[in-house]
Design a protein that fits this description.
9-stranded mixed beta sheet, D-Maltodextrin-Binding Protein, domain 2, 10 helices, Arc Repressor Mutant, subunit A, alpha/beta
């Protein structure tokens, strides 16, 4: 059975939309429709009900879901493990959100080298949606993400709660913040919604960046304001490069460790989680 057809089926089932699934898979909507048509012809069953509000699985689609997930996951793991050298006992594929790469993923790879040399690691760094799709498809075994998709097949542990605060190079109070030089860091849908509710009269920012590091560099070099992780800017506040806007709303970002309940590599995953928590506690994992 064509693996790309199965991936299309799983993405539509997750997204509830042919269009959104096509965007996530970086293909056209017609290509997605053709894949599902081929799959339905092969199975001789209709898998989705098309409605104005989106699509939903038929009874046959519900029954086929677990089989499709198992098939994709088994193929992905088999491709990854077949080339392992003899001295390696197993392979773990963690996915880490881009914001965690430098401060968590890099020290974690060192911790794994020291404490679990028998494990090979294939680490991926992307945004949450892609990482969660990779987890569902079996490409990844464990993800560290900023938002979660509920599911009975998933184990979800809260990893970290962080404060996101407003800072400026020139303003000292909220009423001094100017929309013209405010840089909006795209922390994701929950933050955008909370930010819009907190600042309903604020004009749309002239600059929106998906990277906090890029936004912070821009503000420090060109002036302005933005919402940043408190832990990332306190050094700049102490040196006077940034002012913390004390009367501004404070937002909170929660991150999560997520893996599948039916994983066949539970011990390696527990080892990986131990290392991630050590790094969270000490900053270095020592």
């Amino acid at each position: 059975m064509n693996i790309e057809n199965l991936r299309a089926f799983l993405e539509i089932a997750s997204a509830g939309s042919f269009q959104l699934a096509a965007e996530r898979l970086h293909v056209t909507q017609s290509a997605i429709s053709a894949r599902i048509q081929h799959l339905e012809e092969r199975l001789n069953r209709q898998l989705f009900l098309r409605r104005r509000s989106g699509v939903q699985l038929t009874g046959a689609g519900q029954r086929f879901l677990q089989h499709a997930q198992s098939c994709v996951q088994s193929r992905e793991r088999g491709q990854r493990e077949i080339a392992l050298p003899e001295e390696i006992e197993n392979l773990i594929g963690p996915g880490v959100h881009l914001y965690f790469w430098q401060r968590v993923a890099q020290p974690w790879t060192g911790w794994m080298t020291r404490h679990a040399p028998q494990l090979a690691t294939r680490i991926v760094s992307e945004f949450s949606d892609r990482l969660l799709s990779h987890l569902r498809d079996g490409v990844l075994d464990l993800v560290l993400v900023y938002h979660m998709r509920q599911g009975t097949s998933l184990v979800i542990e809260e990893f970290l709660e962080e404060r996101v605060v407003l800072a400026s190079t020139s303003a000292h109070a909220l009423n001094q913040i100017r929309a013209s030089d405010h840089v909006l860091v795209d922390w994701g849908d929950p933050f955008r919604s909370e930010h819009a509710l907190a600042f309903p009269e604020l004009s749309p920012p002239r600059l929106v960046l998906g990277s906090e590091a890029a936004a912070l560099t821009h503000v420090l070099e060109h002036g302005g304001s933005g919402y940043f992780l408190e832990s990332d800017i306190m050094g700049h506040v102490q040196t006077g490069s940034l002012n913390l806007i004390g009367d501004a709303p404070v937002f909170r970002r929660r991150s999560y460790l997520i893996y599948r309940k039916d994983t066949v590599i539970r011990d390696p995953i527990e080892t990986a989680i131990t290392g991630l928590k050590k790094i969270l506690q000490t900053g270095t994992g020592q």
